[in-house]
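Researcher: Please predict.
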Amino acid sequence: MDNHLSEERLASVETYSTKLHALVTLMYECLELLIHLDQELNKSQPVHTGRIRIQWFAYPKDEHHFAGERYPLFVQWRRNFAMGLWRARRIPMARVLTFQHKTNEFKAHAREVHGMLIQMRELILIYRQARKTLGQLRGPYPKWYDKSTLVVADTQKTWPRSSLTEGSKQV
């Protein structure tokens, strides 16, 4: 079978491969920056109840992910003084700035922490959007692809090139 669309095929592979690579790169650049900003956030806040950090959570078993993949969420650390234990409480993305402590020990770096939280929230949203876009490629892909490959192979067997050229000559 001749490849009439070989140039278009190459251009398509190049374009979509580039876009796929760009999405994965964007996703991991966001994660790297989040790790860096979380370290800066750790330095900028005192070790007191109310400090905000990023914590990495495992994806649910029913959600598609690769082994060891984690997603970032904001948490606020609280100390239970009676038991002497620290506990992390998840913070909603939309309200992370309202959870920031700006008084007493936190006052010295409050403006810097506020700016970091805004940037971190944006990075998490970009990461989520990139991952969601990549996730749209999953869908029913394996089943659909296998069935489609069988249809294409069956069509190629049923309609060999020689019979098409013979049929066109008879018309």
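Model: Helices lie at 6-44, 110-135, 141-158, 161-170.
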